[in-house]
Design brief:
The structure holds two protein chains of two kinds.
Chain A: E1 12-25, E2 28-41, E3 45-49, H1 56-63, E4 71-76, E5 79-80, H2 86-96, E6 97-100, H3 112-121, H4 130-140, H5 156-167, E7 174-178, H6 186-203, E8 206-210, H7 214-217, E9 222-227, E10 230-236
Parallel strand pairs in A: 3-8, 3-9, 6-7, 7-8
Antiparallel strand pairs in A: 1-2, 1-4, 4-5, 9-10
Helix pairs in contact in A: 3-4, 3-5, 4-5, 5-6
Chain B: H1 2-17, H2 19-51, H3 54-58, E1 62-65, H4 78-82, E2 86-88, E3 94-96, H5 98-111, E4 116-122, H6 127-130, E5 133-135, E6 145-149, H7 174-177, E7 183-187, H8 188-194, E8 201-204, E9 211-218, H9 221-224, H10 231-234, E10 236-240, E11 267-271, H11 277-290, E12 295-298, H12 299-342, H13 344-352, H14 357-398, H15 408-435, H16 454-476, H17 484-516, H18 524-561, H19 566-585, H20 594-630, H21 632-670, H22 678-689, H23 691-730, E13 734-738, H24 743-755, E14 759-768, E15 771-776, E16 782-784, H25 785-795, H26 800-815, E17 817-820, E18 830-831, E19 847-851, H27 854-859, E20 866-871, E21 876-887, H28 891-895, E22 901-904, E23 915-922, H29 927-937, E24 941-945, H30 946-989, H31 991-999, H32 1004-1042, H33 1052-1079, H34 1082-1088
Parallel strand pairs in B: 6-10, 7-9, 17-22, 19-21
Antiparallel strand pairs in B: 1-11, 1-12, 2-3, 4-6, 4-11, 5-8, 7-10, 8-9, 13-23, 13-24, 14-17, 14-23, 15-16, 15-20, 18-21, 19-22, 20-21
The chains are: A alpha/beta, B alpha+beta.
Bound molecules: adenosine-5'-diphosphate and magnesium ion (MG).
Chain lengths: 241, 1089
């Protein structure tokens, strides 16, 4: 793995430098992300807001190593992932990142427990016993009595909590959530956000949340706004920690 | 281990959830597996039949066979003939004489006093001309094979058969029922055919008015497996040795017309007291040393021969089964592609949480392997059942009843092949699954499948080629073996191809990161580098295509002609360049300029050929030198495997071409005007949006259709051809054969023909047995028999088998020669310039016409040559001038009734013919009258109508096409299942669409009708192409064999019927799967998604 650039501060969890993303669309090309530079310190809870189509998901994909930038650098935990190949990116995703999506995306054929155990099972050096850890995390998220349910037997909010448990399976330093409440009613949504806050508090995980919902954004440490692939606003929110 | 568990659990769950689609995919493979298992089981049953009870099959420990064409022997026939041990029986065959039998028997008994010798004699080699059976009081004589056997020996012990027993349908032994000389036993097929019952009185050809009584009916199996396959077609009767003197009209052996009560034997059977195989072998060896003209076949020899036959048969059937399995594989590809497409998001999620591409591939691979296993589990019982049900059919082909044998080999082979084929066919979709980008998870609506990269494609191709090549190799071995030079070129071309692909891939891979950056992001050096790389990339890409097509061309040429010549290779080169360039035009859209693309293509191509050739030679040659010298066996294996891989490459390239054509056709069809009908419009659009699947499904289906229609239409067409051309070829509608060969017979025959009303014309035909002495060419060269063999050998390209085959034909041709009266009807033949038919002016001249068949052409016989022939019965040697080498390709049909060589009848003044007959053109209504007159006025005659001959031919054709017919039906069934699978997939994919349509108020019937139209169209396309292609093939075959003009023999009605069948199959398949979908409640469907 690429050694960390010593110009980076050790306490920056995610760093993006002049990141661009250009995709080919038919004959031409489309620039989705236009030079974003962003530092997210360890343990920070960051909200990314912006209108639909502004590039939020694309940025999350880049930060989480689901895709590589066309230009610019991205560092996760000090590691440069910008030029990594798919094989190493996969390992990074497995070890460093937890993803939570709008549509939960649990594996429909597996029970809650097995969904959560999955990332541990595919870790190169598993840190935990898959089942034990899964049960522990589900309990943490208040899902202890639902371990053997299939996703379709769970409500949306419950599914999302299982998804969060799965994201936490390998104890990643960074949690990336793309509109985690987008598909939930306000109450379940708030439960999910509370769960994320609780996790940050207990595990000091860096959490980045993409959201439309300003009441949710206001609960974060910091909010950045995205428009046409560029950061337009970056403000910190003082909260009773 | 835990991961494997996860893979399996996940796959099983997925299979369970996608019940319907799993079912159909499994059925596709199951159908293929069933075909393999059933055909292999049938093959094993045959093997069992042919290799157990060998003593019975051989009729003894040793079976002594007199000289006949196609049977090996050590020494010359001449001394034995001179010593009176054997006599010629026509057509190059001999029989043992009474003297011969006695001498051999004595020799055997001297060495083994307890040995038993028995024998069987077949009356005549051609049952049409010489033997026959008619029910008492009936005119019509039915052809049947007469077998003279020794029911009991002098002591009254039954001796036929020596081993095993033959029992009549009511369970009695031959010796129980055949007590009087006039007691006969007939085979069940003869009894059925001629409506014979026990107790019926019959006349037998050759035995005058004497009545014989049928005492028993035995299964055809009694003789069919003992070198007497022809009995399955004509049936036979057994008559005891003691009846031979009753054959007053002619000698059963047909050698002379003196009735002497002598024994003749076609085969002698020996039972030794010591049956130890080694002892038997030694005994046979000694016997053969003592009588070098015989073939002493031991049970061990028979086992070798039979297992060879059965193995060849099994391999053939395995290949046919494999075709079905490959068709079934199409279903797997289609299903897996749909599965992967529907689960792109899930795959992306798996990748997000840390599954590597290869792990995803493995996951789906396990799913497809599980389908393969399920397919095997379902297919094996079906296959076993099919084998059980079809064994009667198969037995009918071989004239035997097949006993049920459970063959674990067949089951294992079917099962394993099913899994292998599923894995191979699932490979591409699973690789695609591995390629799904994890980013997809962020765009769930984007379900487009990724394409596989160049490496993946290469890997798939290599795996497919090598696996199928290895399978082909295990089946065919070194069966496809052109001469060494061509083999070497094929293998090296394959190596060049592989290397070029590899190099091209490497270049593209190396350049890729560079090319990904935009030019403005690069410095000057970077820009230049990028430009250089781009150029090289183009060079390789176009060059690669050129080389590919060049290689394809060379491989095809090599396979088709087995000879690579400079012009053919150049031809392939030019075609390769042209196609490569054509394809490079395609690169225009992305590449800078036409000039660069074209130039790049050309230079790249040249570079590739030179480079590839050089590397291939550089690597291949030392390897060859080293391996060939140090380990020739390994080298040979490599060459054989490579040959098979090349074969698979060629076959798959053909399939790919066919696929491309189908793809275009589907595209064209989908552009049909919809005539303003919304249903049709929707159906056409569906066809177009599923082009890939529709084309691949059609491909599988069409192979089945093609096989079935080719088999049925060929059979029907050949039958019809017989009807059309037999009379022309014979020169009349009735053929008369006589038993006696005296002048008196000839005169009375002519008298009857002259004075019967309704006879338009006739040709007197007398048959002579002759030996080839020499051929004198016009330029004075003389070709002796040895020269003839040498010349034919050269023309056969040194191929010994072929030489023997062609020379054999010569023996047969010269073995019987017609004398024909030249004043009336002669066969309708075509002659090239300088050649002619006989004419009235030839009367009394020694001129002959000879059929220009392969052997004759190879020998280089031309008009003007002098053919010198010896007539063994008189010792006379006559010289004939060849006046016509006919342009005739129906030689085989013709030789059934006469010989392909004939001269005017009065050219043979001294020699008595060996048989007399006539070809008569007579009013249909007068045939009965002619028959009656002949039977009273000419001593022994036998009348065959051309119609009857063609009936027999039809029976023969039916018999031989039964198995191919069966196999093609099975193949078509597999094709039908693949269609059903495809329909199920497309309805499943469109559940949503259907749900929306229904929620918009479209009736169930409308939805159904759209699905039916779509699939009916598909069936129509399949039928059109499959049946159309076989019609075209048939016309081609006709043009090739019969020089055109016989297109009316093509059964248009059958073709239309087959098309209807195709549409029917696909509509039924659609009904089965679409009914449920169309009836679904819209809400259900929409929620399901
Ligand atoms: N691979 C791609 N190909 C083409 N267009 C894309 C691709 N990825 C994203 N886009 C486009 O880029 C824009 C930003 O997308 P996205 O990041 O999903 O926005 P957001 O999440 O903020 O709604 C959208 O217009 C989207 O259609
Ligand atoms: Mg988004």
């Amino acid at each position: 793995m690429t050694p960390s650039d010593n110009s980076n501060h050790a306490n920056v969890a995610v760093r993006a430098v002049e990141v661009h993303k250009i995709v080919r669309v038919g004959e031409g090309s489309l620039s989705i992300i236009n030079g974003i530079t962003l530092d997210v310190p360890c343990g920070q809870m960051l909200a990314i807001v912006g209108p639909s189509g502004s590039g939020k998901s694309t940025l999350m994909g880049l930060l989480g190593g689901l895709d590589t930038p066309s230009k610019g650098r991205i560092y996760l935990d000090g590691i440069d992932i910008s030029d990594m190949n798919e094989f190493h990116l996969t390992r990074v995703r497995n070890e460093k990142i937890g993803f939570v999506f709008q549509f939960f995306h649990l594996i429909p054929t597996l029970t809650a427990l097995k969904n959560v155990a999955l990332p541990i099972r595919f870790a190169v050096h598993p840190k935990y016993d898959p089942h034990e850890r899964a049960r522990e995390l589900l309990t943490l998220l208040g899902m202890a009595d639902r371990t053997h349910h299939l996703p379709r037997q769970l409500s949306g909010g419950q599914q999302q909590r299982v998804a969060i448990a799965r994201a936490l399976a390998n104890d990643p330093p960074i949690l990336l959530c793309d509109e985690p409440t987008g598909n939930l009613d306000r109450k379940s949504g708030q439960q999910v956000i509370d769960a994320l806050k609780e996790i940050r508090r207990r595990l000091n995980t860096t959490v980045i949340v993409v959201t439309h919902d300003l009441t949710i954004a206001e609960q974060m440490d910091r909010v950045v706004s995205l428009e046409d692939g560029q950061l337009t606003e970056d403000r910190s929110i003082e909260l009773e920690r | 281990m835990q991961r494997l568990l996860f893979y399996t659990e996940h796959s099983l769950n997925d299979l369970r959830i996608g019940r319907l689609r799993t079912l159909f995919a499994v059925l596709c493979i199951a159908a293929g597996v069933a075909v393999v298992v059933s055909l292999q089981t049938l093959g094993d049953m045959m093997m069992e039949k042919l290799t157990t009870n060998l003593q019975e099959l051989n009729r003894g420990d040793i079976n002594i066979i007199p000289p006949m064409p196609g049977v090996e022997r050590q020494g010359d026939t001449e001394p034995a003939k001179n010593a009176g041990l054997i006599e010629p029986a026509g057509a190059g065959a001999f029989v043992f004489t009474d003297k011969g039998i006695r001498e051999i028997e004595r020799w055997i008994k001297e060495r083994d006093p307890d040995a038993v010798v028995s024998y069987r004699h077949q009356f005549a080699r051609s049952p049409l001309a010489n033997a026959g059976l008619s029910k008492e009081g009936q005119d019509e004589t039915e052809p049947v094979i007469g077998l003279v056997i020794e029911v009991k020996d002098v002591q009254g012990n039954p001796v036929y058969p020596i081993y095993g027993e033959i029992r009549t349908e009511d369970g009695q032994l031959l010796s129980d029922v055949m007590r009087e000389p006039t007691d006969i036993v007939v085979s069940d097929n003869a009894a059925d055919e001629h409506d014979l019952k026990i107790g019926d009185q019959v006349n037998l050809g050759g035995a005058g008015d004497r009545l014989f009584t049928i005492r028993g009916i035995v299964p055809i199996e009694a003789e069919a497996l003992t070198d007497n396959f022809v009995t399955t077609i004509f049936g036979f009767y057994y008559v005891d040795l003691s009846a031979v003197p009753l054959y007053t009209d002619y000698d059963p052996s047909l050698v002379t017309d003196e009735v002497d009560g002598n024994r003749y034997a076609g085969q002698l059977y020996v039972r030794l007291s010591d049956t130890d195989p080694e002892q038997v072998r030694l005994f046979a060896q000694q016997l053969q040393n003592r009588y070098p003209f015989v073939n002493a076949r031991t049970t061990a020899d028979l086992r070798d021969r039979n297992s060879q036959i059965a193995t060849a048969l099994k391999n053939l059937m395995l290949i046919m089964g494999l075709v079905s399995l490959l068709i079934g594989g199409v279903g797997i590809i289609n299903t897996m592609l749909v599965v992967v497409a529907r689960r792109t998001v899930e795959i992306a999620v798996l990748k997000t949480i840390g599954l590597q591409a290869r792990q995803v591939t493995l996951l789906f691979m396990i799913e497809s392997v599980l389908m393969g296993i399920l397919g095997g589990v379902v297919g094996v019982p079906f296959g076993l059942f099919a084998a059980w049900a079809l064994r009667g059919f198969a037995g009918q082909v071989w004239g035997t009843e097949l006993d049920w044998v459970f063959s674990s080999g067949a089951v294992i082979r079917g099962f394993l092949l099913g899994i292998i084929i599923t894995t191979i066919f699932g490979f591409l979709p699973t690789l695609i699954a591995g390629q799904v980008r994890p980013g997809n998870v962020l765009r769930p609506n984007d379900t487009q499948l990724p394409s596989t990269g160049i490496w993946q494609s290469l890997l798939v191709m290599t795996v497919i080629f090598v696996t199928l090549g290895l399978i082909a190799w295990t089946i065919l071995g070194n069966g496809i073996s052109p001469d060494p030079a061509s083999r070497w070129s094929i293998v090296s071309v394959g190596a060049v191809l592989a290397l070029s692909l590899g190099m091209g891939g490497a270049a593209v891979a190396a350049g890729r990161p560079f090319l990904k950056r935009r030019p403005q992001d690069l410095g000057t050096m970077g820009k230049i580098g990028r430009y250089v790389l781009l150029t090289i990339g183009t060079l390789f890409q176009t060059g690669l295509q050129g080389v590919l097509f060049f290689a394809i061309g060379v491989i095809l040429i090599a396979l088709v002609t087995t000879h690579l010549t400079v012009p053919t290779v150049l031809g392939a080169l030019i075609v390769g360049v042209l196609i490569g360039l054509l394809l490079s035009l395609n690169g225009l859209r992305t590449q800078p300029s036409l000039a660069m693309t074209m130039g790049g293509g050309l230079v790249g191509f040249a570079a590739m050929v030179v480079l590839g050739g050089a590397i291939g030679a550089a690597m291949g040659w030392p390897a060859y030198e080293w391996l060939h010298k140090s380990n020739p066996d390994t080298w040979q294996t490599i060459v054989d495997v490579s040959m098979n891989i090349a074969l698979v490459e060629a076959a798959l390239i053909l399939v790919a071409l066919l696929f491309a054509v189908l793809w275009l056709l589907v595209e064209l069809t989908s552009r049909f005007p919809s005539l303003g009908l919304p249903d049709v419009k929707v159906s056409l659009r569906a066809l177009s949006s599923n082009r890939w699947r529709v084309s691949s499904t059609l491909l599988g289906f069409i192979i089945g259709v093609l096989a079935l229609s080719l088999v049925t239409m060929l059979a029907i067409a050949v039958k019809r051809l017989f009807e059309i051309s037999l009379e022309d070829t014979l020169g009349g509608n009735v053929f008369v054969a006589t038993g006696f060969t005296s002048e008196e017979t000839q005169n009375s025959l002519v008298n009857v023909l002259e004075t019967t009303d309704g006879v338009h014309s006739y040709t007197l035909v007398t048959n002579y047995i002759t030996d080839f002495v020499e051929l004198r060419k016009a330029d004075g060269r003389v070709m002796k028999r040895t020269d003839l063999i040498a010349v034919i050998g050269r023309s056969a390209g040194g191929d010994l088998k072929r030489t023997q085959h062609l020379t054999n034909f010569f023996d047969l041709t010269v073995g019987q020669m017609d004398g024909r009266s030249v004043t009336s009807t002669l066969p309708d033949k075509n002659f090239d310039e300088g050649n002619r038919q006989l004419n009235a002016g030839d009367a009394g001249e020694r001129v002959i016409v000879i059929t220009g068949n392969e052997a004759v052409l190879a020998a280089g016989i031309e008009a003007g040559d002098i053919l010198v022939l010896e007539f063994p019965s008189s010792g006379e040697i006559l010289k004939f001038r060849v006046v016509g080498v006919s342009d005739e390709r129906l030689g085989d049909i013709q030789s059934a009734a006469g010989s392909p060589i004939y001269a005017p009848i009065d050219a043979f003044s001294q020699t008595r013919p060996n048989a007399i007959g006539a070809v008569v053109d007579i009013d249909e209504s007068q045939i009965g009258r002619l028959r009656r007159r002949l039977s009273t006025e000419v001593d022994y005659t036998f009348v065959i109508e051309a119609k009857r001959l063609s009936e027999l031919a039809q029976r023969l054709i039916d018999q031989f096409t039964l198995l191919p017919f069966l196999v093609s039906i099975l193949t078509l069934i597999t094709g039908g299942v693949v269609i059903a699978n495809s329909v199920a997939l497309s309805t499943m994919e469109r559940r949503r669409e259907i749900g929306i349509m229904k929620s918009l108020g479209v009736q169930r019937e409308r939805v159904l009708s759209m699905l039916l139209i779509e699939n009916g169209l598909m069936g129509f396309l399949g039928g059109l192409i499959g049946v159309g292609a076989s019609v075209l093939l048939l016309i081609q075959i006709w043009a090739w064999i019969f020089e055109g003009d016989l297109t009316d023999a093509i059964p248009i009605g059958t073709a239309l019927g087959l098309m209807a069948l195709c549409i029917g199959i696909s509509v039924v398949a659609a009904m089965l799967t679409a009914w449920g979908a169309s009836g679904e409640k819209p809400l259900n469907v929409l929620r399901y998604e």
